[in-house]
Design brief:
heterodimer; A: about 350 residues; alpha/beta; Rossmann fold; four-stranded antiparallel β-sheet; 15 helices; 12 strands; about 35% helix; disordered N terminus; B: about 350 residues; globular; disordered C terminus; ABC_transp_ATP-bind (chain A); nucleotide-binding (chain A); ABC transporter ATP-binding protein (chain A); AAA+_ATPase (chain A)
């Protein structure tokens, strides 16, 4: 597990990769050819520092994958800026991808099924100029396989994807990302397709890479418990807006936004056995995230929020920062009503 | 949402509380094989358990553990190459008859579908017919099992079923794609309950929806289950979810049930090393964080399962005999209540014997 270094240490050097106030609007057409704009991400910022893990948490459609793809420069930003090591990021290309690598959710479809591991990893090494001769390729592929705990490496080097399990494939995918020797990894739900019993090993592997090799990692997930396990900081997104962020224990143990609270209270927690779900007697409708072609004005959570007031419908609130670096965008704090969030128990939430 | 009981013609005979706790389903030594070119693959291997009326039985296991093969065998929805090659599924009807669902012919099985057994599948988009409005799909089911019912009655019943799961009755006019994912899944649950079944099999009904919706759907299932009294077999890989909803949990590994017991027991004192590994595979949300380790290795290839206990290659506590001896699922010490485990570490039934 990564050690919980104070946030201030990390901010001394510029972030390896940062998104500064980025937005992404997609233009789509419906069946009738009418144009619509999907406001996928609005004014999001995230900074990735050496050796640290930031988790981006939210439901599907919250914009977390879009934000990661802007960081990877798969999608150009609609506004805002991507910064690499303190400077405006160079255009997408080999030079950029040598610094920033993405790991996808589904290892079964992200690897070429026709080739052996030797080729899959060797090609990356050759293309990026890290290995030239056959002997160099073999030596480096073996070392990569050892780094991702695919041992004995000599056995795995000549396997094809179909001869491996999901966990092993995801390790190959991680090894392929490492082969370019990046400084930043962007993991888009890297464990959600894997079997439960092997997820932890992949999380531990990612944690070790950050700890020992100083990689910066963005970990995208909908599973807040795994975010807590792996990361140093958490950012919570809802319907394209970043609603809360900060050190993980602050955010998870004392959320400052009603949506974060709802998300945490909704996550299965075995320690809650016997209470919770079974005792929920009222038929409740907690609503669903909005359609992003016509999102609600102001804070997009307001239609589902038990604390919604006029300001919430009018404008998205500014950031309120708390003692330990935790921050939230919620009108409750702007109106001095922070205490209400703590007083309300989860059962009284919507 | 107001949720009134379904006051249909059959409500009088609907799962009565008098029968609650009586056996509903006795599965014994059920074996399901996949016929492949390279020989038979045992997906379920002599699986035995009893399900009581009104009980929620959780079935947890990784992909390839045989949980889906088991429920398609239970509901007789399996297709070749899957084949039930052994064992019995004894179903107790309300009026005291015993039916063997393995051998029952299709003609006698059909009236039992929806009225006795229903299933909720993982992907509601795939379960609904995309070119039919919801109301037509509800009518299909209701009319089939209650011939002579009027159109008004069907519409009224459809509206009530949808309202029961928190969907506005007007939504009956929608096509499936016009509903959100969470709504579709709830509509599917309403459809499964249309004829007040005794047993509802749920195959990962919430894996395709987000956690907030998952929790709402789960709370709704529990509420309906309490009110209508049906039994549930709930299949998932998410043990932490089962801990909150199940009366009992069965853990499957490589086609066999390796442990079965109450959630609290499995959580605080798992007996099978695999159960322990699975429990420890979920990081806590609030408890202090410690470094956790997954279960080493990968699930076995069922085309070539390891001899003896299928878990032994991944087991840290294996004994030399685990490689040869197949542990049987059996009752453990009396103080464990109704708890069964298949592990040589717990093979002593003698109350004084060392069992842990």
């Amino acid at each position: 597990m990564t050690t919980a270094a104070p946030t201030s240490d990390a901010t001394d050097e510029p972030a390896l990769l940062a998104a500064v106030d980025v937005s992404k609007h997609f233009t789509v057409r419906d069946q009738l050819g009418r144009k619509a704009t999907v406001r996928a991400v609005e004014h999001a910022s995230v900074a990735l520092h050496r050796g640290r893990v930031v988790a981006l948490v939210g439901e599907s459609g919250s914009g977390k994958t879009t934000l990661a793809r802007m960081l990877a420069q798969f999608h150009p930003v609609s506004s805002g800026e991507i910064r690499l090591a303190g400077h405006r990021a160079p255009p997408a290309g080999r030079g950029y991808f040598r610094q920033v690598q993405l790991i996808f959710q589904d290892p079964f479809s992200s690897l070429n099924t026709l080739h052996k591991v030797r080729h899959i990893l060797g090609r990356v090494l050759r293309v990026h100029g890290h290995a030239h001769t056959r002997a160099e390729v073999e030596e480096q592929v073996l070392s990569l396989l050892n780094r991702v705990n695919l041992t004995p490496a000599e056995e795995f080097i000549d396997k094809r994807p179909r001869e491996m399990s999901g966990g092993q494939l995801q390790r190959v995918a991680i090894a392929r990302a490492l082969a370019v020797r990046p400084t930043v990894l962007l993991g888009d739900e890297p464990i959600s397709m894997l079997d439960v019993s092997i997820r932890l090993d992949v999380l531990n592997l990612l944690a070790r890479l950050c700890d020992e090799e100083g990689l910066a990692l963005l970990y995208i997930t909908h599973d807040i418990a795994s975010a807590r396990y792996l990361c140093d900081e958490v950012q919570v997104m809802y319907a394209g807006q970043t609603v809360e962020g900060g050190p993980k224990e602050a955010v998870i143990q004392s959320p400052k936004h009603p949506y974060t609270r709802l998300l945490i209270d909704s996550s299965p927690d075995p320690d809650r056995t016997g209470r919770g779900l079974r005792d929920q007697d009222d038929a409740e409708d907690l609503g669903e995230p909005p359609n992003l072609t016509a999102p609600p004005d102001g804070c997009r959570f307001h239609p589902r929020c038990p604390f919604a007031m006029d300001d919430c419908r009018r404008a998205f609130p500014d950031r309120t920062t708390f003692a330990d670096g935790q921050w939230a965008h919620c009108w409750l704090h702007q109106h001095g009503r922070s205490a209400e969030l703590d007083r309300t128990t989860s059962k009284e939430l919507p | 949402m107001t949720a009134r009981p379904l006051d249909t013609a059959r409500s009088a005979s609907a799962p009565s509380s008098a029968l609650r706790g009586e056996p509903l389903l006795d599965v014994s030594r059920l074996t399901v094989e996949y016929v492949t070119e390279r020989g038979a693959v045992l997906a379920c291997n002599e699986v035995s358990f009893t399900l009581r009326r009104g009980e929620i039985l959780g079935l947890a296991g990784e992909s390839g553990s045989g949980k889906s093969s088991l429920i398609t065998a239970l509901t007789r929805l399996q297709r070749l190459p899957a084949l039930t090659t052994g064992g019995e599924i004894r179903y107790h009807t309300r009026d005291g008859h015993l039916l063997d669902l393995v051998t029952l012919d299709e003609r006698r099985l059909r009236p039992l579908r929806w009225t006795e057994l229903a299933i909720v599948l993982q992907s509601a988009m795939a379960a609904f017919n995309p070119v039919m409005r919801l109301k037509a799909q509800f009518a299909d089911v209701i009319v089939e099992h209650q011939p002579g019912i009027t159109g008004d009655e069907v519409a009224e019943r459809t509206g009530r079923l949808l309202r029961m799961v928190g969907i506005a009755p007007e939504r009956a006019h929608s096509y499936p794609h016009e509903l959100s994912g969470g709504m579709r899944q709830r509509a599917l649950i309403a459809l499964a309950l249309a004829c007040e079944p005794e047993l509802v099999v749920m195959d990962e009904p919430t894996t395709a929806v987000d956690v907030v919706m998952q929790r709402q759907i789960m709370a709704q299932i529990l509420r309906l289950q309490r009110r209508l009294g049906f039994a549930v077999v709930f299949v998932t890989h998410d043990l932490s979810l089962l801990m909150e909803i199940a009366d009992r949990i069965a853990i499957m590994y490589a086609g066999r049930i390796v442990e079965i017991g109450a959630p609290q027991q499995l959580y605080t004192d798992p007996l099978h090393p695999y159960t322990r590994g699975l429990r420890d595979a979920f990081p806590p949300l609030h408890a202090p964080l410690t470094k956790l380790a997954g279960i080493p290795g990968s699930p076995p290839d069922l085309r070539d399962p390891p001899p003896g206990c299928a878990f032994h290659p991944r087991c840290a506590q294996r004994l030399p005999e685990c490689e040869q001896v197949l542990p049987r699922l059996h009752q453990v010490l009396p103080q464990h209540g109704e708890r069964q485990v298949a592990c040589l570490l717990h093979d002593s039934i003698d109350p004084g014997g060392e069992a842990s």
